[in-house]
Design a protein that fits this description.
Layout: H1 21-29, E1 38-39, H2 45-55, E2 67-72, H3 74-90, H4 94-98, H5 101-104, E3 108-114, H6 123-143, E4 147-151, H7 154-157, H8 159-165, E5 172-182
Antiparallel strand pairs: 1-5, 2-3, 3-5, 4-5
Helix pairs in contact: 2-6, 3-8
Length: about 200
């Protein structure tokens, strides 16, 4: 579906809040698509710009924007994957080379890069904000009707792989969000039993 967004509110402008039952319905059945099922079409350039705008509206203590985006379009993503594959093969690491299918197959990817800033805001909170960016980008793409998957793998942590991606000192990959149209609907997976995960604090 076309991505039609309201104009971004101006700084200091009141932002009306109202119930959004359709959002609750979406979250109740939200499911990531397997990266290896993602094919064309991917979000267009205009759609991606809108998705990134939405992803940037996450909670961000201190208004630091302690993250950035690296867009991996089809042809460039293929070059990135080839360089990672060469890196893995140079080490005789067949297993890591095989894991690149999740990177190679989807038509579009976005690396969300965490870049905490020195100052009063704890680094942990800035890292959490980068994770929120990944989740919001994922949700926005799914709500637009595309398939999406948020993953990390060895190339999110390997120093040489991060250098190929163009990360700067102190930066880390919060996640690769891969986007496209799923060739098959994702199946529901097992969910946690909430009763064992919830406690109520009492004095």
């Amino acid at each position: 579906m076309p991505l039609s967004l309201p104009a971004a509110p101006l700084f200091g402008q009141p932002v009306p809040q109202q119930p959004r039952p359709e959002v609750l319905s979406f979250l109740a059945t939200r499911r990531s698509a397997s990266a290896v099922t993602l094919a064309e079409p991917a979000p267009s350039a205009d759609e991606l710009a809108g998705l990134l705008r939405l992803a940037a509206r996450v909670p961000d203590h201190g208004k630091l924007a302690p993250w950035r985006f690296i867009v991996l379009e089809s042809a460039a993503k293929a070059v990135f994957a080839d360089r990672l594959e060469a890196l893995a093969n140079s080490r005789g690491d067949v297993r890591s080379a095989a894991k690149l299918a999740k990177l190679k197959i989807p038509p579009l990817g976005v690396a969300v890069v965490s870049r905490p800033r020195t100052g009063e805001i704890p680094e942990w909170e800035q890292v959490l904000s980068a994770g929120a960016v990944c989740a919001t980008l994922l949700y926005a793409a799914l709500a637009l009707g595309y398939g999406a998957n948020w993953i990390t793998d060895w190339y999110a942590y390997d120093e040489e792989a991060k250098a190929i991606l163009g990360l700067e000192p102190g930066e880390k990959v919060a996640g690769f969000v891969f986007l496209g149209t799923p060739k098959e609907p994702p199946q529901e997976r097992e969910r946690p039993e909430l009763a064992s995960l919830i406690t109520t604090w009492r004095p």
